Amino acid sequence: MTVEKSSFRDNSGFVFCEHGEIFRAITYSYKENYEHLIECGLYDYLIKENLLISHTEEVLKDKLNPDIYKIIKPKKIDFISYPYEWCFSQLKDAALTTLRIQKAALKHGMTLKDSSAYNIQFYRGKPILIDTLSFEIYNENEPWTAYNQFCKNFLAPLVLAAFCDVRLNLLLKNFIDGIPLDLSKKILGTKVFLSLGVFIHVYLHSKFQIKYSDKNESLSVNKKWMNKDSLLRLIGNLETTVNKLRIKKDKTHWSNYYFDRYHSKIYFDEKKEIVKTYIEKVKTKRVCDFGANDGEFSKIASAWSDVVLAFDSDHNCIEECYNHVKENNIQNLIPLVVDLSNPTPPIGWANSERMSLVERLNADLVLALAFIHHLCISNNLPFNLIAEFFGKICNWLIIEFVPKSDPMVKKLLLHRKDIFESYCVEDFEREFLKYFSVIDYKKVSGTDRIIYLMKKN
């Protein structure tokens, strides 16, 4: 039995892995809340509405320790992602899902005791709660204890993205418990007054936190007014505030990448056909598309694979890909904001609470299309390190080599000295053949680009 390292935060139970399966142990301290969750109808409602991951109750062959009341086996999530890897719309949908769950809980006599963004995952294309132990019995006239956590985990990063810059979502990597409201207030400046909801839930909320932070008493709440109806109004106001948030759809360097003056429709169509042929040939379960842009080739892979992970460092590209996933109900494509030259690190206590991207990958097939020249020239990465990395993370590789004669490489070299003497197809093949065998390759008509299908040695 291997206990999930992030489970130390919850005294109601813990997640563990045994024989490749995921389980959740529930302690006797949570027994009353768990039984109420099942008996009051909330669990059935959330499952019906696809808001909570379902589980089965397991028969205890032997008690792991006397404190364990029950063991459940949740349905397995395809891929665990983190809030700082989500685009704006993913975080917004996760926030609205959390509020919808809280409203349902209150109507069933329960409440969310925490609202961590890490409790939400994307399953079959939609956000869903994965922590069954997040609920507790609601006591009349008690405030929502997870309100502050919601504001730091969801509202603050969403507001910063909408009013300032979407890249500020990356602050969640530095603040594992959510972006502090006082910091959010400072970054926003006078923009905090642009929305009444933001003014209340960020500015005033931050003021009250600061006021009571150095007092030897807890924040006094007039419980006479803190009833269920007032909590539902609070949730409704948060919903309205989140719903109104929008980001500017600015054109970035990589948006519409395949439809600029350097790429013809003939090239794009032929490339899609080559990649489709290779994907059909290998038929792997899990595909990772690095430098996915808006996910054109990830969409092709989704027709032949169980799970497709589309990674790109450009937030707008992932935003566009996610919106396409939603609109077309694609259930096996997960777009994420990831920079492969600086992939998600392990963070949290002892660098083990949240796993690195590489630890979570477990790829059968990697797509690296029109991508390697950016790693080599923009990031000064040599072929040997790139080949070694891909050799560690996948069994199959579809990779496109873009030579120096290509307009896109010439563009990269336009404002810098060409120090890349080894950037040639011969050196590329020599380094990659140390880890892979070339199964097939095709040159794209009208270009000097070559697409390879490789298999790990």
Radius of gyration using CA atoms only: 24 Å
Q: Would you identify the regions where 5 or more consecutive residues have pLDDT less than 50?
A: none
Distance between the termini: 32 Å
* Class of secondary structure makeup: alpha/beta
What is the strand content? 15-25%
Q: Specify the number of helices.
A: 15
Helix content: 25-40%
Question: For the residues shown, what is the average pLDDT?
Answer: 91
Count the beta strands: 16
**Within the largest sheet, what's the order of strands?**
12-11-10-13-14-16-15
So what's the overall shape? globular
What is the topology?
Layout: E1 2-3, E2 13-18, E3 21-27, H1 31-39, H2 42-48, E4 55-58, E5 68-74, H3 88-107, E6 110-112, E7 120-123, E8 126-129, E9 135-137, H4 147-163, H5 181-188, H6 196-213, H7 228-244, H8 265-282, E10 286-290, H9 296-302, E11 307-312, H10 315-327, E12 333-337, H11 357-361, E13 365-368, H12 372-378, H13 383-393, E14 396-401, H14 407-412, H15 425-432, E15 436-443, E16 450-456
Keywords:
457 residues; seven-stranded mixed sheet; five-stranded antiparallel sheet
Describe, in plain words, how this protein is organized in 3D.
- The model has no long low-confidence stretch (mean pLDDT 91).
- The strands form four sheets. Strands 12-11-10-13-14-16-15 form a seven-stranded mixed beta sheet, with helices on both faces. Strands 1-2-3-5-4 form a five-stranded antiparallel beta sheet, with no helix packed on it.
- It starts with a strand and ends with a strand.
- The radius of gyration is 24 Å and the shape is globular.
- It has 457 residues and is α/β, with parallel strands linked by helices.
- The longest helix has 20 residues, at 88-107.
- Strand 15 and strand 16 form a beta hairpin.
- Helix 13 (383-393) runs parallel beside helix 15 (425-432).
- Helix content is 37%, strand content 18%.
- It has 15 helices and 16 strands.
